[in-house]
Specification:
This protein has 287 residues and is mainly α. The protein is built from twelve helices and two strands; from the N terminus they run αααααββααααααα.
Length: 287
């Protein structure tokens, strides 16, 4: 595959992986927890580097997943202790992310990891970091990570589809019929953590939030069916990646930033012209 095609494939995988996962967050009104986790996983990545002296492979994923779960646990603990949900997210998010930023200073020049890279990422560099086995290149590491996480997330959704759906729409009823609501909650947080760290190199901590939230919010305006929403959110993520890459090439701007901006354009279109919730159609029906 060509250099350009690898970038497009990576962007589409980011949109699909984050879109499917983020749609559930939007339905559960937990969109801002994605913002927190997408930043705090930096601490897990830096911690994994201190242990293994490497930013590649399974240790990075494990480190990020652990910190992602800790983020969700701390937010839930503070919320149950009387701290407002948004304030709890703000406290945990800023504290753990700041700690990760501080620890980056101790890495120095050993690896290419700085605050700008952590926040913005650079998808244009992805095709150069390839998986090498016995001297044979099997494509970018990011593609393998994103593909693996996508398979894991889809398996989780398929296996626990009923539990996720019931606990999302009626958590009280889910508790009454014995659905493990707490387990489903942390399972979702694990999915978000894995999606975030897999997308980290491609779009960075800030832009991954757009891919996690905006496609799901856009799909929410277009359908009321859970399964359709999941599929549509993933499709919107892919479309945003394709539109963003085309825009980045045409205007000579950041590829990852252009892809995230494309999600905003698609949301605006849905917000205005959605058959059921669109502002334009609502005004037409009332006239």
């Amino acid at each position: 595959m060509t250099y350009t095609l690898w970038i497009i494939v990576t962007g589409c995988l980011v949109g699909l992986t984050c879109g499917i996962t983020g749609a559930i967050l939007v339905l559960r009104k937990m969109a801002m927890i994605a913002d927190a986790i997408s930043h705090t996983v930096l601490l897990g990545i830096v911690g994994a580097f201190f242990v293994t002296q490497s930013l590649n492979g399974l240790p990075m994923v494990i480190g990020a997943a652990i910190v992602g779960l800790l983020t969700a646990f701390f937010v839930e603990t503070l919320n149950r202790s009387g701290v407002q949900s948004d304030a709890a997210i703000g406290v945990v998010f800023t504290s753990l992310f700041a700690l990760g930023v501080v620890l980056i200073a101790f890495i120095g020049d050993q690896v290419h990891l700085d605050v700008q890279h952590a926040l913005m990422g650079e998808i244009a560099f992805v095709p150069w970091d390839t998986l090498q086995i016995n001297g044979v290149s099997y494509g970018p590491v990011a593609v393998w990570m994103l593909g693996g996480v996508l398979v894991i997330n889809v398996l989780f959704i398929v296996i626990f589809y009923k539990e996720i759906k019931i606990s999302t729409f009626d958590p009280q009823f889910a508790v009454l019929i014995g659905v493990p609501v707490v387990f489903i909650h942390y399972l979702l947080m694990t999915m978000v953590s894995l999606s975030t760290v897999a997308s980290f190199d491609s779009v960075g901590a800030i832009l991954v939030v757009a891919m996690l939230i905006v496609p799901g919010a856009t799909a929410y305006l277009l359908t009321d069916k859970f399964f359709v929403l999941l599929c549509l959110s993933g499709a919107i993520g892919i479309l945003a990646a394709l539109m963003g890459y085309g825009g980045a090439i045409y205007f000579n701007v950041s590829i990852a930033g252009s892809m995230a901006s494309a999600t905003g354009v698609l949301f605006l279109i849905a917000f205005l012209f959605s058959p059921k919730h669109g502002i334009v159609f609502k005004r037409v029906r009332t006239t």
